[in-house]
Amino acid sequence: MYICNCSYTSKLKAVFFFGLILSLCCACSRAGARRVSSYDHYWVKAADERVEADRKWADYLFNHLDRRTGSRSVALRQKPAQGTFLQIVVHIDAKGKHDYSAVLDGDVLRLTACDEDKMLWLIYQFLASGEDPRIEASDLPPAMIDIAHAEGDFAFEYRGIYSPSNADPELMPVTASHHVDYDWGLWGHNLRRVFPGEVPEEALAWVDGQRDENQFCFSSELLFKAVEAYVTDNYGETGGVRFAIMPNDNGAVCACKACTAAGNTRKKATPSVSRFIRRLAERYPHHLFFTSSYRTTEVPPAEPLPQNAGVIISAMDLPLRPDFAGKRPAENFSRKVKEWRKVVSRIYVWDYMRNFDDYFTPYPCLGVLSERLRYFHSLGVKGLFYNGSGYDYASFDDLQTAALACMLINPDLPLESYTERYLKRFYSHASDILLPAYLSWEHIVKEREALLPFYGGIADAVSAWLDPVEFGAFCDRLDGCAKRTDGMERRRLNELLTALQFTRLELLRMPAGAYDERKADLYLESLYGYTAFSGMKNYREAFGSVQSYLEEWNILKTENRESQNPLKGIRLSCQPAEDENAASLPVLTDGLYALPSDYHTGWFIASSRRFVLQVPPGKISDGAVLELSLLYAPAWHIFLPASVEVWQGEGKMASFGLPPVGEKEVFSKQRVSCKLETVNPDIPVELRFMQVAAARASVACDEIKVY
């Protein structure tokens, strides 16, 4: 039998009634709360007029409000005599609970930050919030916080972004971002800079019984004195500047008596480099000194370094793809970070945000970068350097740099919302086209758990997210929209559309793609417009001149036009049948040539020491000339073969004469041929390749032709 507990029921009713009243009061309070934009005036006030920092930043906010509203009556430094007003109280609080806070309480908005850098950022968050249409902020990225109620801490102390949209030193403080060209005393493998002229012999590493001009001896007193003079003369002793102290980018390790005594081995320079950094850190306790976990210094030192020493760890081995945490590369990276945390107080990560072989094809990486940032933060990483396209244009770099700057403060930034606000601010006419397209690309990458390569070709983009037909339709819609816009938006769209012609040309070059010379001419004509934009000289990190690409395309059109080949469409076979090669065999007889500057697309690449390409019986006639189109690109470990012989059965028919090539040549296409006098139509013809004796050597061929 159910018995009612009257006492318990009464208490429950009371709690419910109290909660209802409280909820209604809160709702009324929220309904009556005024937004920042609903006031006639802003009364800007220092929290304490006796404190110089409070006064300084109250004046700063007042002056910028005055300038951006264009009216001396909107922002005031004294209490208004009439009209409604919002009092804005500015306060620097080094001992506050959070790095920043913005709290609207009644008619008072309190802006509080732990230091002056964060106060400047917070003021611009207020100016860019879009709360008040009287404040002209069309040049500022959208605010990432709700200016009426926000508090928090910056996720990372160093937030470097090496991209063209972060190249303005006046904008960096606004977005609270950093840039290696402005805030490091030494960066990368640039230790040579401490010497005004030639590096003295005593500072050079001792390798294989002689001085190596490409590496340093980190036990050299002369090297230490040179670094000491460089730091003192240029930055003093109290500035808190960061310095990267790294060996040159090679595997050489000094084996002098002092370095060997420190613990150096043939492949490990950590002992001498860490001792060098210890000396610098102790000599300059107010500066920060970083080594790198890379090549000869990958292993941490045995003993902890001073508190002002740190390490930069590359994330190159951490694939840029969704849901990477928990997989082996992430486990290895986590292990490395944990080992370094035992000996240094600061760990910075060198991460990547571009396909360095193609800056112009969109690279929908924001969702993956957000995941990575949360992961890095969970490991205790204190700083990030994002390697982008430097000073070269990259498609959607403006949006991605703005969003990344926010995510380096808060990795949980609502990306879709921020993307929408950014595009609507800077592409007001085209946002209806750009927004669904960009978000769909990000979604596809997430859905497929796709790999975004750091060095990849157009096929990688198609595999990850790019649908060629939909992409073409997107470009056409965007082009139509651009023609109806003007001003800065028109210029931004023209720049983007010029870059996207590169992607359309690359899609035409894909094996089994829809090569069309008429379309190629249209896209090339548009890409020639790159000269109108100062940042569009290069489309990739190395050897990426757009002008050279256009010239190669003009040659390519002629090659494809003249490609009358009886072998076209004939499937060849390869021994050994390597998986990596099998899929690309059709490019050898598709009638389409490749660009020498791009090994990703249109080339059959084989790395076996010996391999054989086999032409089916009856496809080559007596007296035919067999021609190979080969790639020579030693920087990519692609060489001409040591030999190529033509066989049928057990009989050698001919050999190809291979031309000499210049050692300094970056890449070139070489055509070689031989004549076959008598061919048995009943058995296959074999092309037997032998690689040159070079490490990691490969052979690349884009077309085998018979005439």
UniProtKB/TrEMBL annotation:
**Does Signal appear among the keywords?**
yes
Does Signal count among this protein's keywords?
Answer: yes
Q: What span is annotated as the signal peptide, if there is one?
A: 1-27
Which key words are in the record? Signal
Under the heading PANTHER family, the entry gives: ALPHA GLUCURONIDASE N-TERMINAL DOMAIN-CONTAINING PROTEIN, COAGULATION FACTOR 5/8 TYPE, C-TERMINAL
Protein name (Swiss-Prot/TrEMBL): DUF4838 domain-containing protein
